[in-house]
Amino acid sequence: MKRSIVFLLLLPQFMQAQQLPEKHYPKGYFRNPMNIPIELAGNFGELRPNHFHSGIDIKTQQRENLPVHAAAEGFVSRVGISHLGFGNVLYIDHPNGYTTVYAHLNRFYPKLEAYITSKQYEQESWATNITLPAGLFPVKKGEFIAWSGNTGGSGGPHVHFEIRDTKTEKPVNPMLFGFSIPDTRKPEISRIVVYDRNKSLYEQTPKVVTVKATKGGYVASTPVVKVATDKVSLGLSAIDRQSNSPNPNGIYEAMLIEDGEINCGFQLDNIGYDETRYLNAHIDYKMRKGGGPYVQLLFSLPGNNLGVYHEVVGNGIVDLSDKQPHPVTLRVTDAYGNASDVKLTLQQSGDVVETPVCTNAMYPGSRNIFENSEVEFFLEEGSLYDDICFRYQEIPNSKAYSNTFRLHTALVPVHHSFSLRIMPKRTVQPELQDKMVIVRKGFGEGISAAVYEDGWYKGTFRDLGDFYLTADTISPRITPLGGIRSGANLSKASRIAFSMSDASGIKSYRAELDGKWLMFSRRGNVLSYKFDEHCPPGNHKLTLKVTDIVDNETTYILTFKR
After folding, report:
1. Please, what's the b/e burial string for 169-185 (b: 16 or more CB within 10 A of its CB; e: otherwise)?
2. CA neighbor of 545 nearest in space, from 475, 489, 473, 488
3. Which of 43, 108, 113, 515 has the fewest beta carbons closer than 10 A?
4. Over the stretch 109-128, which tens digit does the pLDDT of each residue have?
5. Per-residue pLDDT tens for 344-366?
6. What's the distance, Cα to Cα, between the start and end of the chain in Å?
7. Best CA proximity match to 188, nearest among 334, 299, 312
């Protein structure tokens, strides 16, 4: 009798050693928001530039204007409209404490669409974010709420669908709520990356081990990996696909198993918008930014506050100091429990090479400042994810108002925005003082309007790289589309459209018809107006004004008959 009691007590501990803790969410409460089977173009936790994907992307058969339905009973609590991100988005609060989100929509259902349009004209702004009271727009489960589309930052027709905790607004993985998504395919592992934990992630070249798929599972191309260090941690590249979709989506969970126990792992079940930028600490940012693959780390960097990690019996470090072989297993799992394993052995070979002393180190937990007589910047605490040995170089630039200042490299991510100040090397004429910009180059480009401060010019950035000060005196360009010209008869036209462009970036635009604000929607840098009751029959004068980030303006006037 005692033996059976001991066995029952030990069984849960054994099982716990092979899996990460699970959270339980209500299954069957929410319905598919579409009338077509769910096929995924993207899933929760998928890796995107500077953020995790916060929901699932439901394919709409490469079509727009499919009906979208409320996933459960509730009320429309918020509506947003933007040319970026979610585009046209609708939020429904539900009595069970969750909020569902429906994004990239073309239009809302007629009653709501009319209400939002009236608010846009009141605010004289097409872009809007409106919070709605509980009793204004109630909905029932399955009720029609919108037409699907391709608005905002969408790259093709689909519906972005999220489930959030209403109180915290934290997105939760929808695939944990019991939706019918066929999935019997195991995750695919393509590489393992070995890191020396005596060095910063950004001050080393890790060892990459390719992984091959065999009938028996995944096999490392180098079964025994020998390294010149006594402490290593691992990262991996892996994707997941669903049975009815070939899209390479993200994984749900990964863990490092050593001596039959989970050392540590991560689980992508919920990620807040306040922490989603920590994706840059969750991946090998240096490798990805440099043109390489996504590699997810099976350990948390010193400056990473992302809450997806589980340190079970370790912290992701494998101790090799005994110089003996250490077999480990990496296990990758999707949200439906399909799992793939890959094994390899780690061993220290040779003595540990000491890291050279850095005379200009910057640290994640510190406020880091660099300054001289020509350039200065300040990184607040928590801006870095790991130590860096800061490098600086001044490069002659005869065309700009300053030399080019190389502030380390854009291969190192920065979490918080930072201020950068440059002292001009030649006189800035008074008429140009409010036209100055700071340009950043290096693995992409950024431009910030520069504000004058006691002889310096200050801009705001979120990436390191090469910076210089210059002037922008060129106004934006407005181009009518579709061959429209002043004096035209547009009685048979359904819309008017313009493209706008500017070297530094567009800050705002405003359209007026016969002196009254007219609502133009924006898609990228294309503005369009669909003729409605705001443009009655007759002769009209349309004035479109576009302003860039340093307030250069261009005005385009179009006269037409309707």
Report:
1. ebbbbbbbbebebebeb
2. 475
3. 515
4. 999 999 999 999 999 999 99
5. 999 999 888 788 889 999 999 99
6. 93
7. 334
